[in-house]
Here is the input.
Amino acid sequence: MRVFWLIRQEDGSTVAGQRRNLTGLAHTWHALVDRTLVDGVRSRRGAASLTSHGTSEGQLDSTDNLRRMTPAQAEIGIFGGSGFYEFLEHAVEVDVETPYGGPSATAMVGRVEDRSIAFLPRHGRDHELPPHRINYAANAWAMKELGVSRVIGPCAAGSLKAELQPGRFAVCDQLVDRTTGRKDTLYDGPEVRHFSFADPYCRELRPLAVTAARDHGITVHDGGTVVVVPGPRFSTRAESRWFQEQGWDVINMTQYPEAYLARELGMCYVNISLITDHDVGLDETSTPVTAAEVFAVMETNNDALQGVLRTLIAAIPNERSCGCAGDLA
Here is the structure.
C-alpha cells in the first residue's frame, strides 16, 4: 500500500505527496521516523486543510520528489474533549486515514507553549462516540503518523474512595482492564509481538503532571489504580463495591486500550483523571450519578485542566529518558 497526502489550497487545487510501499508494521515504524515538515500550511483560520489517503501501487508514480511530504508534525498529542479545540494556537485541521479506518475526528495540529501539539477528541467532535465504539487503534496510529512521541490522556473518572473528592485530580500509575471486545493490539498476525505493560504510565511524565497540578493549587493524588469498564452504562452497586474491595482508586471507560496502544507504537502516555463523582457503591446512601452531572463537573474544571496541561507541556523535556519506546528500539 502506498500512502500519500493531499493539501487543499485556497484555490481548490491540491498538492500531493506519497510514501514508499509499506509492508507490515516493522516497515511502517521505520517509515514513520523519517519525516519532514510541510512548508506554507495555513492556519485553521485560513482555507488550507490536509488529508491523508491510501492508494494502490502504480498511482502518483510521477511525484517521487514529493514522497517524503507529510501534512503537519507534532511532538506531543492530547486525547480529550471537544472543549480543547480552542486550546491550540495557529491550528491546522489534518485528516489522517489509517490501516484501521478513520480516527474519532479530524485531528488538529497547532502550538501550545511553543511546542507542536496534536489534538484528537476521543469521543468525536460532538461527543457522538460511546466508549465501546471509539476506534482506539486508529486514534493511536493517527497520533504516531503525525510524529507524536508523548501522549497526554486527560479523562473523567469516578472515585472509588471517600478521600478522592469530585473536582480533584488523580495521576494514576496502574490500570486494570475490565473491558471486553475492544481491538487492543496492532499485532494480529502474521507478525506477533509481546509488549511489557507492567507500568502502563510513563515514569517521566507522571511526576511532571503531578507537579503541574500542584503548581495550579489543585489537590492531586499521586498514583493509584484506574479500573476501566466497558461503558456506556455506569456500575451497579455490587460492581462498585467489588472494585473498592480490590483497593482500586478510580473508574473510567476509555483508558484501555488507549494507553496500551500508545505503548505498542512506542509513545509515552500519561493520564490525568478529573474526579467527577463518587461511584455508586461507596456507601448505601450514594446517589447514582448521571451523565449530565459528569459533564457539568468537566465543564466547571475545563479551564483548570487546560492550565495544568499548559504547565505540563512546557515542562516536558525534548529528549526522552523513560524507556517507553524500548520494545521498538
Q: What stands out?
A: The longest strand covers residues 268-278.
